[in-house]
Structure formats: structure tokens, C-alpha cells
Design brief:
This protein has one helix spanning 2-26, and strands spanning 38-43, 51-56, 60-65, 70-76, 81-86, 92-97, 101-106, 118-123, 127-133, 139-145, 154-159, 170-173, 178-183, 190-194, 200-203. It is mostly beta strands. The chain has a single domain (34-203), classed as Methylamine Dehydrogenase, Chain H. The strands form 4 sheets. Strands 1-2-3-4 form a 4-stranded antiparallel sheet, with no helix packed on it. A 4-stranded antiparallel sheet has the order 5-6-7-8, with no helix packed on it.
């Protein structure tokens, strides 16, 4: 029972940290001129020193430091994003877009202010949904749908460095719309959460 209470306390504490960072970030004066209309996704690297926000109108991802109470960078995305994932060290960001592209951003290290990133773009499918990164950082899983049916019911496993369909490791369909893709933080496993079948599928 004591362990359960400790876990609950840790969850509440961590959730409070995220909410505090979220609201503090949006009080930052630098966003007052071009404040985003919608937060599409957020991600926290393994070091927990940064929070990445994917926004809509404008299409950008924002790098925020809770420790410094400062926005380190606002980088433009190619178009509206569906989902985002960040490497454990915070140096690389992968975004999936509504129109079927995976964009990979490599962020220069050692800079207080981030104004640019090396980018790689690959067309993957007509429509993309959630994206996840494997524990070893070598593979991404991305859910996709067709132009006739925008609901994602298929998954591609791609190399994280090239994000190229030509190098894909797997392409398969599942039963029911995919609501989320989650990567195991220790093992190279992807958990696929389906809406209609109401279960979790695991891909190794």
C-alpha cells in the first residue's frame, strides 16, 4: 500500500510539473506577439530539462526550458503536425504531418538560443497520425491512413536517421483506428492502442 501511495504521489508531482511548465511557458512575453492558437502535442526528453511544444497557427515547435523560464527556440514546421517525438538527449525531433510527411530536425548543441536546425523530410503516406521512437533511438513507428479514409489503421517502422520508405523495416495493418503509439522506454517495443478492438497490440 505504501508503494502504491508513493507511485500516486510521483504521478501527481510529475503531472504538476508539466502543468506548471505549460502555464509558465505561455506567460512568457516573447510569445505575446505570435501566440499559437492550439497546442497539438508536447514531448519531454529523457533529461527532463526541456519541453517541446508542437503548435498550430502558426505551425511551429517551441523549445522551452522550465529551469531557465525561457523559450530557447521557435522553429518553423513544414506544415500542420499530427504528432511529435523527441530523442532522449533532446537533440533530434521527429514530427508527422497531416499530409503524410515525416520531418526530422537535428538541433545544434551548445547554443543558448536555437534559431535553426538541420532538417530531413520524407513522404511516407497520404495521411499520418501518431509517431513514436524506439528505446535505442534507431527506429520510428508512425501510424498512417489512406486519402479515402483519414483514420490511421496501418503502421510503418522506419529508420530514425533516414525516415525513408525505401528503407522501411515493416508495414502492417491493424484492426480498428489507431489512437496512440507508445514506445517502451527500456525495450525496443511499440505499443499500438486501437479504438475499435479496445486492446493494446505490441510490436517488437
Amino acid at each position: 500500500m505504501r508503494d502504491d501511495k508513493l507511485v500516486q504521489f510521483q504521478i501527481v508531482l510529475y503531472g504538476g510539473f508539466i502543468l506548471l511548465a505549460f502555464f509558465t511557458a505561455f506567460l512568457y512575453p516573447g510569445w505575446a506577439v505570435n501566440k499559437p492558437k492550439l497546442i497539438l502535442d508536447l514531448a519531454i526528453p529523457g533529461n527532463h530539462d526541456l519541453i517541446y511544444f508542437a503548435t498550430d497557427a502558426p505551425d511551429e515547435f517551441i523549445i522551452y526550458s522550465p529551469g531557465l523560464h525561457s523559450v530557447l527556440g521557435i522553429l518553423p514546421a513544414s506544415e500542420r503536425m499530427a504528432s511529435m517525438v523527441v530523442s532522449n538527449d533532446g537533440s533530434t525531433v521527429w514530427t508527422s504531418t497531416k499530409s503524410g510527411y515525416v520531418d526530422r530536425f537535428v538541433i545544434p548543441a551548445g547554443r543558448v538560443t536555437i534559431t535553426q536546425a538541420e532538417t530531413r523530410r520524407a513522404r511516407v503516406a497520404p495521411v499520418l497520425g501518431p509517431i513514436a521512437l524506439s528505446a535505442n533511438g534507431r527506429f520510428i513507428a508512425v501510424a498512417y491512413g489512406s486519402s479515402e479514409d483519414y483514420n490511421a489503421r496501418n503502421v510503418k517502422i522506419l529508420p530514425a536517421d533516414t525516415v525513408s520508405v525505401a528503407d522501411e523495416l515493416a508495414d502492417f495493418s491493424v484492426t480498428g483506428d489507431i489512437q496512440a503509439l507508445v514506445a517502451n522506454p527500456v525495450q525496443n517495443l511499440f505499443y499500438i492502442i486501437n479504438a475499435h478492438s479496445d486492446r493494446v497490440r505490441i510490436y517488437n
